[in-house]
TrEMBL record:
SUPFAM superfamilies: GntR ligand-binding domain-like, Winged helix' DNA-binding domain
Keyword DNA-binding attributed: yes
Species name: Shinella yambaruensis
Domain HTH gntR-type residues, every copy: 4-71
Protein name (database record): GntR family transcriptional regulator
Length: 308
């Protein structure tokens, strides 16, 4: 991929980290950490940060690196490029929808994907890099790519939520469960910021990411790695199906408030009550999301049948 295209994509990812509150004003951006997060070398990350500094989102301090500027929120809209990343996002959604609806096989070659979606090699690499980060694609040893199992049906979606209703409340009752002040404070900051400013303006994908992050961070406090590994895996499996569903932003407001209520209970030491609240929260999310998922699945398969 040409560095400028990759750098623009990373610049947009960093911008979303700022707007979502994951990167706060004055925070130091560490090149290697970002490179590891995005699965790239440090060079395109540095180029992306140079780009964002020239546009006013970041500030470069001599011999210290890049920091989020105090006036960052006012320049966010100027940072987003209207030609590169959004076109890539549309192609990404086409690929994701084809995998969800079984229009493409699990193992593919880059040549097959380039021809099917009329993409350049650099565009395809960008899309596959994102799919890899989000956990539903991997490069095969030697040649080609493999798409990994995801929740493709409403039944699978519901089964995932019922699994979560078992493990997430139970994790809080584990003997080794301990409050982590850093996790509590960071999640409170993210959820509060979403309520204050972000729900109406953030992309749906970032809202879904922040919601999943809340649950994955809280389950870490059980100090049982198998709880966390299991939750991360099932969250990845349901992510594509949620991306293709319509995000109800009013429901996201309720979810944020419930997240904050769970944090309040944990901070007061009412762990059993927090466990019950988590189960109610997940049950409510399942009841609200299931009809939306069923509707999307029905429409998608109707469209597929018409095309046949």
């Amino acid at each position: 991929m040409r560095s400028s295209q990759l750098a623009q994509t990373i610049a947009n990812e960093i911008t979303l980290l700022v707007t979502s509150g994951e990167l706060s004003v004055g925070e130091h951006l560490k090149t290697q950490q970002l490179a590891d997060r995005f699965g790239v070398s440090r060079s395109p990350v540095r180029e992306a940060m140079d780009m964002l500094a020239s546009q006013g989102l970041l500030e470069q301090k001599e011999n210290r690196g890049f920091f989020v500027r105090e006036a960052a929120s006012g320049v966010v809209e100027q940072v987003r490029d209207d030609t590169g990343p959004f076109e890539v996002a549309n192609d990404y959604q086409r690929l994701a929808e084809d995998w969800l609806t079984d229009r493409i096989p699990a193992e593919v070659t880059e040549q097959m994907l380039r021809e099917r979606y009329e993409l350049t090699k650099s565009q395809l690499n960008d899309i596959l890099m994102r799919a890899t980060r989000e956990g539903w694609a991997e490069r095969k040893q030697g040649y080609g790519w493999r798409f990994l199992p995801v929740a493709k049906t409403p039944e699978a979606f519901e089964q995932i939520y019922r699994f979560r209703m078992l493990i997430e409340p139970a994790a809080m009752l584990e003997p080794e469960f301990r409050l982590d002040r850093k996790i509590i404070d960071e999640q409170r900051r993210i959820q509060s910021r979403m309520l204050d400013t972000d729900i109406e303006r953030l992309p749906a994908e970032r809202l879904l990411h922040n919601g999943a992050l809340f649950h994955e961070e809280l389950i870490k406090m059980a100090n049982n790695p198998f709880f966390h590994i299991s939750l991360v895996r099932v969250n990845r499996m349901r992510r594509l199906l949620e991306y293709r569903s319509r995000v109800d932003r009013s429901r996201t407001v309720r979810q944020c408030r419930e997240h904050l209520e769970i944090l309040d209970l944990l901070e007061r030491g009412e762990v059993v009550e927090a466990s019950y609240a988590m189960r109610r929260h997940l049950g409510g999310a399942l009841s609200k999301k299931s009809p939306i998922t069923w509707s999307w699945s029905h429409q998608a398969h109707e469209k597929d049948n018409l095309e046949k």
